[in-house]
Amino acid sequence: MAIPKAVKIVEVGPRDGLQNEKNFVPTAIKIDLVNRLAAAGIRNVEAASFVSPKWVPQMADGADVMAGIERRPGTIYSVLTPNMRGFEGALAAKADEIVIFGAASEAFSQKNINCSIAESIERFAPVVKAAKDAGLRIRGSVSCALGCPYQGDVPIESVIDVVQRFSALGCDDIDIADTIGVGTPKRTREIFQAVSDVFPREHLSGHFHDTYGQALANIYAALLEGIEIFHASVAGLGGCPYAKGATGNVATEDVLYLMHGLDIETGIDLAEVVAIGDFISNATGKPNVSRAGKALFAKTRNDAACA
Ligand code: HMG
Ligand code: MG
User: Fold this and answer.
1) Whose CA is nearest to atom 45 of ligand 1?
2) I want to staple 46 with a disulfide (CB 3.0 to 4.6 A). Which of 15, 40, 235, 279 is the partner?
3) Cα(179) to centroid of ligand 2, in Å?
4) Start-to-end CA span in the chain (Å)
5) Which pTM value belongs to this model?
6) With bands split at pLDDT 50, 70 and 90, how would you rate the model's confidence at 301?
7) Comparing 108-112, 131-135, 279-283, which segment has the lowest mean pLDDT?
């Protein structure tokens, strides 16, 4: 199969990236981050979560973030909604897309959303129905699709099962998420081959964390399977509060460098994203873990010094 000529990048740094920060990131910084990412050409930004602030305190200001951002026409602003309360928040905040998030592992489902996989599907059913009635887009995220911090290996059948349940609920897009970054290119190809038999390939996305340094290789493996949507986090921000030791998502700068090197269109200005990576790393005091981001930032400075 030929690799895609263009891909959609979903920037998840403002949500998946920041949710794990111990120190509260000021709302104004979050707003600036979302605005700058959208201005760089990113057409889908995961901007906030409407989850319990007791569970994820960093996301407690989701309504203020959504109220403060500029809405660029054509840009999708997504938010996480674990239940009807979250959906009501998302609707009031005028989100374009809601994200329901389940797991392919029972143990992770319990730790992350305090219920079994089957209970989570029951809880999501009215959320999806209400979102459909309100004309919102719906994305389903399948956590631990390539491994679980509690259970270890996750059978492909479990991933397919959740994908089918999300599909039956009415999700527009479904994410295959390597929550703890243990996946390998071989496993990635096997999963996308299997899952694209039960859900349209063009609506599947790859959500890779980079804990074992395999994320770019896994993205390339997914490209070989014709996958056209990838999630990434500027400066490689992040981790998961319910997956100890897991690092952030693959860095957006690294994914853009890969895509542009393959002549795959993204519509995104890499230089702008590099500058945003420096901005958010300074704002959070966290090191920028994007290899391409750091190299390009240093080169820009060097070029300026030599000019
Ligand atoms: P629970 O404790 O079982 O439920 O949590 P509850 O209904 O008893 O609620 C507990 C408290 O939270 C109550 O407050 C509720 O009112 C409140 P209290 O009465 O004690 O004062 N509450 C809410 N507040 C605001 N917004 C809401 C909301 N719902 C309840 N929507 C629940 C169940 C699902 C709420 C909880 O487990 C939760 O919020 N979990 C979210 C966990 C989370 O955000 N994890 C990170 C995102 S997933 C992820 O990162 C993976 C992903 O990136 C893909 C990947 O990499 O795998 C997507
Ligand atoms: Mg994630």
Assistant:
1) 112
2) 15
3) 5
4) 45
5) 0.97
6) confident
7) 108-112
Q: What is the pLDDT of residues 153-180, one digit of tens each?
A: 999 999 999 999 999 999 999 999 999 9
**Total number of domains in the chain:** 1
What DSSP element (H or E) covers 8?
strand 8-11
Task: Note whether 226 and 209 are within 8 A (CB).
Answer: no
Range of the domain at 119: 8-306
Which residue of 50, 51, 99, 247 sits with most ligand 1 atoms within 8 Å of its CB, as the best mutation to test the pocket?
51
Contact 223, 204 (CB under 8 A): no
What are 209's strand-pairing partners?
249
Task: List all residues 6 or more positions away from 163 whose beta carbon is below 8 Å from its beta carbon.
Answer: 140, 142, 174, 176, 195, 198, 199
What confidence category does residue 270 fall into, taking pLDDT thresholds of 50, 70 and 90? very high
Q: Quick check: is 2 in a domain?
A: no
Residue 65 in tokens: 């973030």
Query: Can you give the CATH number for the domain in which 38 is found?
Result: 3.20.20.70
Mean pLDDT of the 191-212 span: 97
Q: How far apart are the C-alpha atoms of 28 and 60, rounded to whole Å? A: 14
- Tokens 């959609």 belong to 8
Domain assignment present for 1: no
d(CA 121, CA 113): 11
Three-state DSSP string of 148-194: ECCCECCCHHHHHHHHHHHHHHCCCEEEEEECCCCCCHHHHHHHHHH
Burial class for 21, CB neighbours closer than 10 Å (0-12, 13-18, 19+): middle
242 CA to middle of ligand 1, Å?
12
167 alpha carbon, distance to own chain's centre: 19
Q: Is the CB of 240 under 6 A from ligand 1?
A: yes
